[in-house]
Amino acid sequence: MEQAKRAGAGIVKAAHDTFWGGYAGYFQDPDRHLWEVVWNPGLEVRD
Question: Count of H helices and E strands in the chain?
Answer without folding.
Answer: 1, 3
